[in-house]
Amino acid sequence: MNALNINPLGPLNNPYNKQTAPQRADKTEGTKQERDKVEISSTAKQMQQGEEMDATRQEKIDALKKKIESGTYQVDPKATAKKFIDFWSGK
User: Fold this and answer.
1) 12 pLDDT exceeds 70?
2) Where does residue 10 fall: left (phi above 0), alpha (psi -120 to 50 degrees), or beta otherwise?
């Protein structure tokens, strides 16, 4: 059997062609659209450069490390909870 016996009008009367035609048009238009852009803020660029930490911050970090290693570092749960509350309430 050939297609002419089943469909006497041939490929002109194929309902599936109507569905695929808009998809083909979309594919050709997709190349004309702008590409996505990513912009990095100046603050993020500074962070990426890995700037040196200032000396006072490094001293604080070293002091905390020593306290943690020696087992003398104590966390005040009430002070921690207050900081959370202040942060979330915008104080």
Assistant:
1) no
2) left
Q: Report residue 13 CA to chain centroid gap.
A: 47
- What is the C-alpha to C-alpha distance for residues 68 and 62, in angstroms, rounded to an integer? 10
Cβ–Cβ < 8 Å for 35, 42: no
Structure tokens at 26: 């979309």
pTM above 0.70, yes or no: no
User: Over the stretch 45-67, which tens digit does the pLDDT of each residue have?
Assistant: 777 776 566 778 889 999 999 99
Query: Residues 82, 83, 89, 91: what is their CA dihedral angle, to the nearest 10 degrees?
Result: 110
Residue 14 Rama label (left phi>0; alpha psi -120 to 50; beta)? beta
Q: Six-digit token pair at 69?
A: 């290693």
